[in-house]
Amino acid sequence: MKHRKSIGLTFAVLAITSAPMTSTAFAGLPEFQQAGKFVGTGLKAVLETEGAGPTRVECQTSEIEGEVLVAKVKIAKKINIRFQGCESGGIECKTAGAAAKEIKTEALEGEVGYIKPAVGGAKTIVFALEAEAVGGPIAKYTCANADEEKGCLAGALSNASELTKKFTLVFKQLAGVQEIIEYEPEKTVKKKCVLKVKIGAEEKTDALETTQKIITCPGMEVKS
User: Fold this and answer.
1) 117 assigned to some structural domain
2) What domain range includes position 191?
């Protein structure tokens, strides 16, 4: 039976700033300007595996919470995401101990970075999630089989507003391949970011398609 794991990810970046960009390189990198907690919600999330016989998990809603522990850092900690209404081919998907049709992530951390633009193009600010435990899973859950998501998942931040404290985090994929699979956490340093799912004994590349609306806590701001 076909089946996909869904880790619809909702991420929040609090007070992200970056220095002005030159015509050939970025003069600075984004970072969290303030410490504090954040929350957010998302709608439908779909995760699809790459290759023949793709599997698919669909979740209807999601919630996120996390925290930037200190100001002037690139990493957010204590990120937890809950996905509700999750199914794969009509089969319930859930994490052990969670509510019906609910997938819960392990504790995650999120890093902000850049994708350099083409000549004359606009820069992209990236927010990438990994397990806080080095080498650990992003999420574990069961649909038709026991599934485990590991690796890294990156989305693009856009439409940031300092006045409304809202922004959009977009994850795009095509045929099970994530749109963003590499970014720069530091100048001249490139980091691969690929999500893998283990379905029973089989491992495949996985990719997420979703849009998340994030509202930061009072006093937080998002700059780019």
Assistant:
1) yes
2) 16-216
